[in-house]
Amino acid sequence: MKKITQLLSFALMVCTLSVAAQSTVTGTIIDAGQQAPLPGATVVEKGTSNGVSSDFDGNFTINSSSSTGEVVISYVGFVSKTISFTGNMDLGSVSLEASEFGLEEVQIFASVAVDRKTPVAVSTIRAAEIELKLGTQEFPEILKSTPGVYATKAGGGYGDGRINLRGFNSENVAVLINGIPVNDMENGRVYWSNWAGLGDVTSSMQVQRGLGASRVAVPSIGGTINIITKTTDVETGGNVFSSIANDGYEKLGATYSTGVMDNGLAATVSAARTRGNGYVDGTEFNGVSYFLNLSKEINDAHKISFSVFGAKQRHGQRQNRQLIETFKNSERGRKFNSDWGYKNGEVTHQEDNFYNKPQMSLNHYWTISEKSSLSTVLYASFGSGGGGGTAGENKFIFDGSGYSDYRNGLYGTIDFDQIVDENIARGALGSETVLRASHNDHNWFGALSTFKTDFSDDLVLLTGLDVRSYTGKHYQTVTDLLGGQYFLDNNNENNPNAALQVGDKRSYYNDGNVGWLGAFAQLEYDVNENFNTFVSLALSNTSYQRVDYFNYLDSDALQTTDTYNFVGYSAKGGANYRIDAKNNVFVNIGYFEKAAGFDAVFLNFNNETINADAENQKITSFELGYGYRSGKLSANVNVYYTAWRDRTETQSFRQPDNTNAVANILGVDAVHQGLELDFVYRATEKLKITGMASFGDWRWDSDVENVQIVNEDQEVVDNVNLFIKDLHVADAAQTTMALGINYKLTPKTKFIVDYNYYANIYADFDPSDRGTQGAPDAWKMPDYGLFDTVISHTFDLGPFETTMTARMNNAFDTEYISDARDGSGSVSSTALVYYGYGRTFSLGAKLNF
């Protein structure tokens, strides 16, 4: 009995000690510069895989099986902090200082701008805000409350959104994902449908307006959008998420992370499927997004990481803009789309888009010494897909009254069955009208390596190489004979009068080979803890070559052109001075030359009319900014000036003899200048108010006279003039404002209202169209404002922490024109437009485990 009593006493003591050894550590993580919460920060018990993430308000609670230990707190773009704990402990507010770099996996490549240090105008959107507000919006629209940004859904198809920054379109806004450039290497554009699942895996998104902090020579005339994806989370676990929305929208996905295992390996995987009918008629969509990250710590000096992500999708499009009168007269109103119909009772698209662009990267991080490190990434992407359309006789237009023999009623859907019947009746004559697809496949390989060394605590040198190789494969294929036996095509010299079947190439078939070799160096000097400066230089060579498989016979030496090289460079510098703990000022200035686009070299889309001496585009920019930080108010104001000289401008002409002629127009200059301000005011613990205003003045700077038009034999056949001086640069709102209210109804319930206002928007036009003296400014579109609302509630559902989020965009169902192209006379009645979405909603749930 005595032994039993002793055993029970010993067991009780062990249990007591075990209980006593457990600890609970709590706290709130905040940005030291902004004095704002950091949602999604990682808190890990040092030496273990035990970890948690902070919530939307920066709060965290972590349970430890030890009575003493250390927690490591980290966040993207901030210096990690290690804090000791003993027993149950409330750490209170834990301030993290902004670091120079982002996640270890992307380090120097990402060029993360640091608040109150990097001298650029910058706005950062965290993962928690993206998750809260994005819903069914296009990914670029999450930036619509950022100064200088104008983002729309364009035609309204899934992934068809566009963004302008300080009046510059995507060709002149650098987009980096984990520091890797993704702008198309032939034309500079960014196709957001290629990245349809990006919102699910983005850790943070930073908009650097103007020159930006990127060290590689990227086309950042308007600015840089710097996207950092999630990495291998040290916290084991994952989530399942689902959402529904208007017009049949459905999304289902999941994410899981192993955490860092005993062997140093960690993995994170995420996948989601999205489908729906689309708000705009005929824009049905279906997409699957995927993401995988593997990381391995080899030793204290080396780490490797592999990532792959992308989205395979297909969606109907609204490619053809319409007159305002057409939308008004159509029964479908702003949802009207002329680019679809029915064939044999099934929806068939005249215009659609399909693409899959997986991007893979392998990163290696080498800590050479306490003062030096080398970071290298090898990456590749393989794009496959394109966009649909028609070939042959155009039977899809309607007359001035809105009727057509091939449409069902007034402004009706396309009657594909009527076209099928006619093609069948033609028999051996083949199809008169078919559906086709324009393919834009590509293979893209690159390497980016950066060496960093600290000469002293105050002086840092970064140097690196940027190498890229790109082949774009362009061709059309027949996708549907619409009942006919074949389709006749006479564009291939190697196979004239070809009777084509589905899958055969037609119209054109060529490759664009683009090479890039760049080198960069940046010297950073901290005069003292309050005064930081930098100077950066970059040199690059862009090479272009064109291969044409249709226009020239196999034996023709013109089938493959020579390689043409264009050297560009950039020089920029800046300084930031922290006057005191609350106030700072910065200034930056830079000049760079950017190679002309691929099509500006190979004019008329052939291998004969070559502009081997195409001029570089020349950009000069400077900026002055001021920032204020306090416990309640964070505010920024800046002014900018950007001069864009020799903007690439070409214009094709059809000669009386039906041959082509082209003009390479130099001297097309523009000046973009403006004032931007933004603020965050934390009125109470429950109420946060955000706002911004952006006032731009973007105009063409000079007329261009006596531009030579040359024919295919390089002979001058005519001269033209461009009268564009003082006309407004179009296609984006020059004045934008935003006001947001974030109110915490309960500790776990938030209600958000955002208002965005857009003014001084001019319909898009080509400067080459202004060929007469006194040419008018483009049609000024109506101003408009939109309200969005969000309510989110978190609760426990059994073992799962569950968040329900309801969103309503354009809550008051405002009717507005988001995009327009100028017509004759620059008046509303001739403009071709897209209407924006009316009221939409979404409801989502996320279960964390």
Task: Describe the protein's architecture and organization.
The protein is mostly beta strands and 849 residues long. 6% of the residues lie in helices and 54% in strands. The strands form 9 sheets. It has a 24-stranded antiparallel beta sheet that branches. It has a 5-stranded mixed beta sheet with strand order 9-14-15-12-13. Strands 1, 2, 5 and 8 form a 4-stranded mixed beta sheet that branches. A hairpin with a 3-residue loop joins strand 16 (237-245) and strand 17. It starts with a helix and ends with a strand.
What characteristics describe this protein?
Maltoporin, Chain A; 6 helices; 24-stranded antiparallel beta sheet; Immunoglobulin-like; 849 residues; 6% helix; Ferric Hydroxamate Uptake Protein, Chain A, domain 1; mainly beta; 5-stranded mixed beta sheet; single chain
List the helices and strands and how they pair.
Blueprint: H1 2-21, E1 23-31, E2 36-37, E3 42-45, E4 51-53, E5 59-64, E6 68-74, E7 81-86, E8 89-96, E9 121-126, H2 127-133, E10 149-152, E11 162-165, E12 173-177, E13 180-181, H3 198-201, E14 202-209, E15 223-229, E16 237-245, E17 249-257, E18 265-276, E19 285-297, E20 302-316, E21 322-323, H4 324-329, E22 340-343, E23 346-349, E24 352-356, E25 359-367, E26 372-392, E27 414-415, H5 416-426, E28 433-454, E29 459-480, E30 487-489, E31 498-500, E32 505-528, E33 531-548, E34 564-578, E35 583-594, H6 598-601, E36 617-629, E37 633-645, E38 650-654, E39 660-664, E40 670-682, E41 687-700, E42 704-711, E43 716-722, E44 733-746, E45 749-762, E46 780-781, E47 784-797, E48 800-809, E49 817-821, E50 832-835, E51 840-848
Parallel strand pairs: 1-8, 12-15, 22-27
Antiparallel strand pairs: 1-2, 1-5, 3-4, 3-6, 6-7, 9-14, 10-11, 12-13, 14-15, 16-17, 16-51, 17-18, 18-19, 19-20, 20-24, 20-25, 21-50, 22-23, 24-26, 25-26, 26-28, 28-29, 29-32, 30-31, 32-33, 33-34, 34-35, 35-36, 36-37, 37-40, 38-39, 39-42, 40-41, 41-44, 42-43, 44-45, 45-46, 45-47, 47-48, 48-51, ...
